[in-house]
Amino acid sequence: MLARAARGTGALLLRGSVQTSAHPPRRASSGLPRNTVVLFVPQQEAWVVERMGRFHRILEPGLNILIPVLDRIRYVQSLKEIVINVPEQSAVTLDNVTLQIDGVLYLRIMDPYKASYGVEDPEYAVTQLAQTTMRSELGKLSLDKVFRERESLNANIVDAINQAADCWGIRCLRYEIKDIHVPPRVKESMQMQVEAERRKRATVLESEGTRESAINVAEGKKQAQILASEAEKAEQINQAAGEASAVLAKAKAKAEAIRILAAALTQHNGDAAASLTVAEQYVNAFSKLAKDSNTILLPSNPGDVTSMVAQAMGVYGALTKAPGPGAQNSVSRSGRDVQGTDANLDEELDRVKLS
To answer: Which of 30, 63, 169, 215 is within CB 3.0–4.6 Å of 111 for a Cys-Cys bond?
Structure first.
C-alpha cells in the first residue's frame, strides 16, 4: 500500500514539477510551510520534520522531498544571528541603589533539534535568563563599579547564559547594556561628587604648581647667590692679586730708582745734582700753595731758595756721614743708605712745606 502511494506521489511529482519549482511552498495558518512533496529549503534555515508525530529528520538547504500526509514540518529554525532586545527592568546594586537597565542580546541556534525540543520558546527563555542573570550580576557590584566595569559585566552575563542555554542548542555571542537609568537624587549626588572630585584635582594641581613655582624661585635665588658670591670672591682674588702685583712692581721700581740714584750720587758732581733736585722740588711745592686750602703757613724767608737748599743739603750731608764699615764697597748697603736718606729727605721737605 505504501508502494502504491509512493508511485502515485511520483506521478504527481512529474506532473507538477514545473509548477512547484516556480512558487515557494505555501505556509499553513500557523506560519509553518505545508508539505507539498517537493520543498526548497532556504540557506541558513533548518526545517524540523516529524513523521507520524515523531522526529524524523532536519531538512538541509536546497531540494528536499517529503511523503504527503505522513511527513509534517513541525519547526523552522533560523541559523542566522538573532538580535533580541532585553526589556528594561529594575535591579538593585550592592550599595542598595535601584537602577533601570536594558540591553541587547545576540545569539545563534547551534543545534536545531535541541532548540525545537529542549525548550518551548527559545527566544523568550533566553530573554528571561538574560534578565535574571543581569539582576544577579548587578547585585554583586556597587554603583561606581557598574559604570567602570561595564565590559566585565557583559562578559559575565554571556558566560552565565551560555552555561544555562547549552542544553537548548543556543549560544549567546554577546550581550550589550544599552542604557542605565539612575534615580534623580542619586544622579544629582553623582554630579556633586564629580564636581567635588574635579575641584579637588584642580586644587591639588594648583597647589603642586605653586609648590613647584616656589621651589624653582628659591632654587634660582640660591644659584644666583652662589654665582654672585663666587663672582665676588673671584673679583676680590683678582683685585688682591692686582694690588699685590702693583705693590711689588712699585717696590721693584722704587728699589731700582734708589739703586740708580745711589749710583748717581756716588759719581762726580752728585751733590750738585742732588741740590738741583731739591731746588726743583721746593719750587714746585711753593707753586702749589693755597690750592687745597685757604690756610697757609709760610717760612720767614720764602724767597730765599739758597738757604732752603743749603739747609736740605746739610741734612743730607749729616745722614750720609753715618758710620758703617765697608759702606763704600757694598752696593746693597749703599742702596739701603740712599733709601733711608731719601725718606729723611722727604720728611724734611714736608716739614719745610709746612713751615
So the answer is: 169
